[in-house]
Amino acid sequence: MFDVRVTVRLKKGVSDPEGKNTKKALHLLGFDQVKNVNTLRIFDIQLDSVSKKEALNSAEQMCQRLLTNPVVHDYDISIEKM
Amino acid sequence: MFDVRVTVRLKKGVSDPEGKNTKKALHLLGFDQVKNVNTLRIFDIQLDSVSKKEALNSAEQMCQRLLTNPVVHDYDISIEKM
């Protein structure tokens, strides 16, 4: 079994409305020291693969086919043996 | 300036519908080796604080007042000087 962590972030230059609204809300609550907020999404996936290489290969395919949108997202994958 | 990373996860025992649906979709795509999927949310916040202690204190308050729901979420905070 492998623990796969996929971190999905917006590409540089792509607007992050959730981050902007969070920043606005924090300012309204009086946190004026907040200069910027970015949001990221993490998928922690437990994979029953035979090797680390196979797990990485599967995770790459999952990112390309479901987890990320290549137009707006960058992602990275980290893998640990359980 | 400090880089504050707030990681928000669901508490143990709290249902993660997004993770469950992601798992279901991955199975439909043929990734049968997927045993479980959990989702996490990260907020990367740039804070203009004078000290690390003040930044940590502010981040704690932000979590309690806006970023997390104490009924369902656990969170941790990491801070780096920029």
Give a brief rundown of this model.
2 copies of one chain form a homodimer. Chain A has 2 helices and 3 strands; from the N terminus they run E-H-E-H-E.
Q: Considering DSSP H and I runs of 4 or more, what fraction of the residues of chain A is helical?
A: 25-40%
Percent of sequence in beta strands of chain A: 35-45%
Q: Could you give the distance between the termini of chain A?
A: 6 Å
Which descriptor suits the 3D outline of chain A?
Answer: elongated
Provide the structure class of chain A.
alpha+beta
Q: Most extensive interface, residues per chain?
A: A-B, 31 and 31 residues
Query: What's the arrangement of strands in the largest beta sheet of chain A?
Result: 2-1-3
Mean pLDDT of chain A: 95
Can you identify the CATH superfamily of chain A?
Answer: Phosphoribosylformylglycinamidine synthase subunit PurS
User: Low-confidence runs of chain A (pLDDT<50, min 5 residues)?
Assistant: none
Q: In CATH's first tier, which class of chain A applies?
A: Alpha Beta
How do the helices and strands follow one another from N- to C-terminus of chain A? EHEHE
Q: Label the CATH architecture of chain A.
A: 2-Layer Sandwich
- Extended strand count of chain A: 3
CATH topology title of chain A: Mth169, Chain: A
**What's the structural domain tally of chain A?**
1
> Rounded to an integer, what's the Rg of chain A over CA atoms?
16 Å
- The number of helices of chain A is 2
**What oligomeric arrangement do these chains adopt?**
homodimer
Largest sheet of chain A: 3 strands, antiparallel
